[in-house]
Amino acid sequence: MSALQQHPALPSLGSVYRTRAGVEVKEFFRQRESVVFTVFFPVVLLLGLGAVLDYDIGYGVTFPQYFMAGVVTAGVVGSSLQNMAIHIAGERSDGTLKGLAGTPMPPSAYFVGKIVQVLAVTVVTVGVLLAVGVLVYGIDLPSGTQWLTFTWVVLLGAAACTLVGIAVSSLARSGRSASAMITPLALMLEFISGVFIQFSQVPTWLQTVASLFPVKWMAQGLRSVFLPAELAAEEPAGTWELGRVALVLGLWCVLGLVLCVRTFRWVDRADR
Fold this sequence. Notes:
The protein is an all-alpha fold. The protein has helices at residues 3-6, 13-30, 32-52, 63-93, 96-101, 107-137, 146-168, 175-192, 204-210, 214-226, 242-263, and strands spanning 56-58, 61-62.
């Protein structure tokens, strides 16, 4: 018997990546609680706050139109930062990560699968939000080159928040405590970043704190595609600062990657 017959060829790295990505996406959408919280919670926010706070902000802009940038930001944060941190902490706690670490699967396949899952969930969440915004509130969607800005802001924001979520997952002592720790943290960042209210109404010192994190910059970048140019004057710098938005989100991608490499664990602290 030849060596080839004794040892069948291992699947290619691309095949392993595709398989792992398929597993991650299917597992997520089979968990009803995760789907409801991640995909439909931002929709509930849009419907609820849009109905209660349906007033004119200025320049003919209603609150639902202004809030669209914020609720899309919340959807991206939920699909990436919260989703990653909570689910990875749970998989570490229940032994899934330890089991995967003991298989021939390259570790990179696990992270590729998570990234594909985030992209899939983000696309679904943002698509549902845009559809509801247009059908219920008549939201004006981006046009022309605004779609390009919308795309890169969402992708860079999702990438930064995904990497931060992976890093933050190591802070949770167990899967049970992850949600209680991560959800308030994400909500706090969203509140001070002008996701739920006009950013100009956030106290100046909190605006400064928010500017240290990617959520504020993602929301600001998205406001530039949903709001008229006149409202840029309401921003702290009096402009949308899209160059700085790209720079800060890019820096957070680099910082998040460094934090992931330095902090990621395959087992709980108690199992070490």
